[in-house]
Structures are given as C-alpha cells and as structure tokens.
Amino acid sequence: TSPMGSTAARFLQPAWHGRAAWLSSSSAGRAGAPRLVLGIETSCDDTGAAVLDEAGTVLGEALRSQKEVHLKTGGIIPHVAQQLHRENIQQVVKEALRASGVSVNELAAIATTVKPGLALSLEVGLQYSLQLVDRYQKPFIPIHHMEAHALTIRLTEQVEFPFLVLLLSGGHCILAVARGVSDFLLLGQSIDIAPGDMLDKVARRLSLIKHPECHNMAGGKAIEHLAQTGDWHQYTFRLPMQQYRNCDFSFSGLQSLVNKTIIQKEKEEGVQEGELLSCVKDIAAAVQHVVAAHIIQRTYRAMLFCIKNSILLPKTATLVVSGGVASNQYIRKGLQTLANANGFAFLCPPPRLCTDNGVMIAWNGIERLHAGCGILYSTDGIRYEPKAPLGTDISKRVEEDSIKVPRLRKTQQLAR
C-alpha cells in the first residue's frame, strides 16, 4: 500500500506514478536487471506491440491502426482486418523491440491478447506470438483484453484494489469490481450491442461522413463533435431498461427508436436516406445525452450496490472508466459528476491508452508476472476465445438487491 495517508495519496494521484507501487515489492527491489515483457495486441482492428519493464516504463511501442480502411467500408470486415494484421504484425513487433533496444532473448515473457475479440484477428496475434515463444523458449502470458483495459489505470496512477471499473468501447460495455490482478466481480454488461457500436451505427444512418465538419471522423467522434452545438432537448428518447433494477445495459432498442426518428425527419424534410438532415446536430446531441444518462444510471446503481454490500469502502471508493468511449468528454463529465456526488475518486487512463494498444497488454503481463498467475511454460492446447466473460458473474445478486436509483438532480441533468 502507499506510504502516504490514503487521502493525501488520492489528491496526489496524478504526480504519484503507478510504478512507485512496485518499488517496495520484492522483485523490483532485488538487485539485477528488471524483468521485461513484450505485449502484443490484435483483438480487433489495431495491431499493437510494446516492451515494458516491471516498473511500468514503456521502453518501446508501435501501433498500426486500420481505422482509415474500415471507415471507407463503413465497418470492420473481419477477413480484411485479419489480412491487415498479417501484413503489419512482424513490422510492428520489430519496431517496438527496436525502439526499446531490447532483443527477444532479453525478455522475461511474451504477453498476448487471446480473448475476447474478432476470431480472425486474435488468430494472427496468437500464431505470431507462439512462433516467437517457441523459437526463443520464452514463458507465455495469455491476456484477457478486458482485464488489460481494467488494469491500465495502475500503470499511470497509484490505485489499490478493489475498485469499480466501467469499460466502454465499440465492442464492450461492462461494470465490474477489480479485486485483484485476475479477480473480478461482474456486476453488469450490455445484453446486446456496445455503446460505441451504437453511436457508429447512428452516425452511419445520418451519413455524417458527408458532413463538412466530420468527413474524416469515426462515427462516435462525429456524434460528439456535432452534439457540442446541438440541443438535446429537441428530441426525447426513453431511457432503456428502466424497469430492470440491475446493472445491465442495452443499446439496440435505443438505436431502433433513433432510426424511427430519423426516418420521420427525412419524410418531413423530403430528404432521401444518405442525404444530410438539417437537424443532425440536435439528433446527435439527444443521442449522446440518452447514452450518457443510461450509462450514468447503471453506474450509479453499481456504486450503491458496492457500498451497501461493503465490496468497496466509502473512504477509498474509486471509479475507473476506460475503453474507447471513455474519451467522449460529455459521457466522461457526467460520470465525473456522479463520482463526485457519491464521494468516489474518479480516474481515467490518458486517451491514447483508452483505445486498444500494446502497452496495456505488456502491462497486464507485468501485473501477472508480479502476482505469479497465468504464466505458461508450455503452450500446448492454448486457443483464442472470441467470447470470454470477465470474472465471476454476480449480476443476479445485483438484481436481487433491487436498488432504486435516486434521481440525482435528475440523472437527466447529470450529463450537462
């Protein structure tokens, strides 16, 4: 634990780097060179690699994004993503190693995302890693992609377990309690699509790529940008899942409601699908607002559940928000307000570590090395898993508690 009082530590968090946590731990304190881990990430559409030492120093990293390609096709096509990973992986790993000045022989282990993700993408990273592991006889650390997102905060901040973590991305929406490096309690998750996926689909339906201000922006970014000058009061979309007192999320019904509104506006304005509506900014603002309000409401229930059941203690309670959608400033501000109102510390990794990257995979490898868990000396029978839950699912217990969420200055206004 931190040598300072917890209150002081919480105020000094930004200056107090996560690596300090290891200085007192046996391995970093031992004489001899610190152990090094190579992390490899290919779970979706980014090819990433990085080399970290056990103090959390990024010695070298490289990343190839496929966003441009997928923006043109209007979504990720798995076999295209796979082909791009195949073309890039060797170069990306070489670049990360070259930047770090480290050879594969000097590594303590190789850590790679094996679950969850796109099967064809995961396969490329795993195949390449196993060749390296085999050739250089290195230990292998298989990584759960969502665990890596959840633990990234411990690279940049001094955060002790347990903490509440909300993972928001194009593929996931998860509320969990991180109790240890590979010890998570799952409180709730999206029962259909993820918020990033929904925002992208709405952006596509609104043809925002044709908007002069958004022609090179990904869907979610375009919505956030246009929403800044839109008025969300012009459209009211019902908050999803109001009747369920749990921490699950749902975005596909909401998407249908939004589509209905768009169709209706197109009729009114005499506009064809694929042409821009005059009211896109207001629709973008209303969509972003209801997504934020839904996320805030479920997170509020998770906070109340954790405090009520002493899973988190009021004094040290922390909410960590990570994943691509965590960089949406409107959603982030709403969650910050929620955390403040409930006496929770609020932390997000820097934006570049919120999206998929090799650094978080290598860091998860370092965390596992320290905890001594999940390090394989034989890779027989190791497989990638496109679907993989995070931790122990206690969502039924959350539902049984049936916690009513107070209108915190009306959840509606939280995200202002």
From TrEMBL:
Report the subcellular localization.
Mitochondrion
Signal sequence, start to end: none
State the superkingdom. Eukaryota
Listed under catalytic activity are: L-threonylcarbamoyladenylate + adenosine(37) in tRNA = N(6)-L-threonylcarbamoyladenosine(37) in tRNA + AMP + H(+)
Q: Where is the Gcp-like domain?
A: 57-363
User: CDD domains under this entry?
Assistant: ASKHA_NBD_OSGEPL1_QRI7_euk
Query: Which EC class does it fall in?
Result: transferase
Q: Which GO terms describe its biological process?
A: tRNA threonylcarbamoyladenosine modification
Pfam family, any one: TsaD
Q: Enumerate the UniProt keywords alphabetically.
A: Acyltransferase, Metal-binding, Mitochondrion, Transferase, Transit peptide, tRNA processing
Molecular-function annotations in GO:
metal ion binding; tRNA N(6)-L-threonylcarbamoyladenine synthase activity
Any one GO cellular component localisation term in the record: mitochondrion
Name of the protein in its database record:
N(6)-L-threonylcarbamoyladenine synthase
Q: What is the lineage of its organism?
A: Eukaryota, Metazoa, Chordata, Craniata, Vertebrata
